[in-house]
Design a protein that fits this description.
- By secondary structure, this protein is of the alpha+beta class.
- It is built from 4 helices and 4 strands; from the N terminus they run H-E-H-E-H-E-H-E.
- The protein has a two-stranded antiparallel ribbon with strand order 1-4. A two-stranded antiparallel ribbon has the order 2-3.
- The radius of gyration is 12 Å and the shape is globular.
- The protein starts with a helix and ends in a 6-residue tail after the last strand.
Length: 99
């Protein structure tokens, strides 16, 4: 069975996914501007429509008032982690609970 991009990302980073620490994020969107794959979305509302499949399985921490990752587009390059001036983006280990 062919793996999805998000499954390949998880395998390639040993189970790590980028996530946002809502307490540190000030919605400056530096990460959005830096992402070469447009994998970081600015939510237009808080209905969770873009990432509900991840919230339902609790694969990643969720804070819809801040940026949202599209793991199907993300290739795990880490540019967003480096671009964040507040260190609000970190590598989250899938299944490890909150940071």
């Amino acid at each position: 069975m062919k793996k999805t991009r998000s499954e390949k990302l998880i395998d390639g980073r040993a189970g790590l996914l980028p996530a946002v620490d809502a307490a540190k994020c000030n919605s400056c969107y530096s990460c959005v501007e830096a992402c070469p794959r447009n994998a970081i979305l600015i939510p237009m509302n808080t209905t969770c429509a873009k990432c509900v499949k991840y919230c339902l399985t609790m694969e990643v921490p969720c804070s819809p008032e801040h940026v949202v990752f599209s793991y199907d587009l993300c290739d795990g390059c880490g540019i967003c982690v480096e671009a964040c001036p507040r260190d609000a983006i970190y590598w989250f280990k899938r299944g490890a609970g909150s940071r």
